[in-house]
Amino acid sequence: MNERSADKSGMVFLASARRMLNGALSAPAYPALMLLVATAAIMQPRLLSIPFLLIVLRQATPLALAAIGQSMPMIGRSIDLSIGGIMALSNVILAMPFMAKGPAWWSILAPLAIGALVGLVNAILVAGIRASAVVVTLGMSIILIGISYIVSGGAPGGQVNAIVRFFAVGRLGMFPVAGIVLIVFAAIVAIMMRRSVFGHSLYATGSSHSAAWLGGIDVNVELFLAHVFSGVSAGLAAIILTGYIGTGTLNLGAELVLASVAAVVLGGTSFGGGPGGVVGVVVGALVLTFLANLLTGMGVAQPVQLVIQGGIIASAAALAIRRNA
């Protein structure tokens, strides 16, 4: 009996360990965050202070917003590589005098409108005529960056409206306004994905386009809405990112394109869905942002940081392929 009990206990332990390993692989952002916190506690304890953690939250907001939007087409087995172009053009537009001195709502509406319009064009090409999402959205990003050069004359600058600065660097007490924007947006999207017809239909679309179609779901409409939502999310991220620097610049947000994909995959979502959800995506963005701060605090040179971050992105891509195998 004792041997049988020991064998049974061993099997239970192995099963539990296997479930934990599978859980870590499905949403690696959580164990990664715990590892980073443990490393910081040993190497850089000051990074774990409340004020600094709030700074990390503020820094992570643009990436998290972009990644939440990116997760929508990815759930539907598509992708959006145009978010960098949306941010670049939105930044240049926000720094123009007529925007900086105009009504505050112009500076909020304009990036969202740009993102929605770009998402609409992407959706028509990807969902409507079945063009490659990678080719279409990458080409769209190049076009938008070119337009930003033309609009700015190759030398952007100027100031942004005070409302843009407030959303990026403002505080309510000690809590950053950008963090509040992220939490509210993430909560709304999480509820939408769990409770709405769109959310359930998009997951069904990602699981199998043909099965979803046979089940009465209009796959084209789901992909259409996913791409428009991604564009709007990129516009919202552009407002926060532009507010950080307070002026116009070229190629703003280019580094967030692949980082957003990495945050989505680290958070447990890949092409076709996954268990991570919106919370996982946000944690993935926090992991990448906290890692950058930790490496900087440890004195790691910028080129080495790029190598490490690139390795994480490549690993995230490999993990996405493994999940879909």
Describe the protein's architecture and organization.
With 325 residues, the protein is mostly helical. The protein has a domain at 56-254. Helices cover 78% and strands 1% of the residues. It contains 15 helices and two strands. It has helices at residues 2-26, 29-43, 50-75, 83-94, 97-100, 104-128, 133-152, 162-169, 177-195, 197-207, 209-214, 219-245, 256-266, 277-297, 302-324; strands at residues 171-172, 175-176. Strands 1-2 form a two-stranded antiparallel ribbon. A hairpin with a 2-residue loop joins strand 1 (171-172) and strand 2. Helix 3 runs parallel beside helix 9 (177-195) and helix 13 crosses helix 15 (302-324). The longest helix has 27 residues, at 219-245. It starts with a helix and ends with a helix. Mean pLDDT is 86; it is low at 19-24.
Please work out how many helical segments DSSP would assign: 15
Structural class: mainly alpha
* Overall number of strands: 2
Determine the mean pLDDT. 86
Largest beta sheet: strand ordering: 1-2
Helix content: over 70%
**H/E order of the elements?**
HHHHHHHHEEHHHHHHH
Give the biggest beta sheet.
2 strands, antiparallel
**How many angstroms separate the termini?**
42 Å
Radius of gyration, in Å, reads 21 Å
Strand content: under 5%
Shape: globular
| Poorly predicted runs of 5 or more residues | 19-24
Layout: helices, strands, pairs:
Blueprint: H1 2-26, H2 29-43, H3 50-75, H4 83-94, H5 97-100, H6 104-128, H7 133-152, H8 162-169, E1 171-172, E2 175-176, H9 177-195, H10 197-207, H11 209-214, H12 219-245, H13 256-266, H14 277-297, H15 302-324
Antiparallel strand pairs: 1-2
Helix pairs in contact: 2-14, 3-9, 3-12, 3-13, 3-14, 4-6, 4-7, 4-12, 6-7, 6-12, 8-12, 9-10, 9-14, 10-12, 13-14, 13-15
